[in-house]
Amino acid sequence: QVQLVESGGGLVQAGGSLRLSCAASGRTFSRYLMGWFRQAPGKEREFVAAISWSGRTTYYADSVKGRFTISRDNAKNTVYLQMNSLKPEDTAVYYCAAKLKNIPREDLATPGEYDYWGQGTQVTVSS
What we know:
The protein has 127 residues and is mostly beta strands. 0% of the residues lie in helices and 46% in strands.
C-alpha cells in the first residue's frame, strides 16, 4: 500500500512558477513509476508528466513540454513537478499517481493504469 500526499499548489499570475511535491509512504517508492495528472472543472483527468523508477526517463504531455519538469528523489520518497511559464489554461487540480511497474509508453497517459493516487492540490493561474 502506498499513500501519496501532494503539496505546493496555490495561486500564481500567468508567467509565474510553482513547484509541486508528492510525498509517498512506504519503502518501495523507488520501484514505482510516478506520474502527474491534472483535472480542470468539467474536464477529464489528463496526463501531465511521468518519470521512471530510476529517474532517468521522463515523459511529458505536449501542452507542458518545455515548461514543466518532473523529477524524483528516491531517498526522500518524493516526486516533484516544477512548473514554469504558467498559463491560465494550466489551472486545475493536480494529482500524483504511482504504478508499481513500468508500463508501455502508450499507456502512460491512461489514469486507469495507475495503482495509487493522491488527494490533489489546486493550482490556479490568473491572467
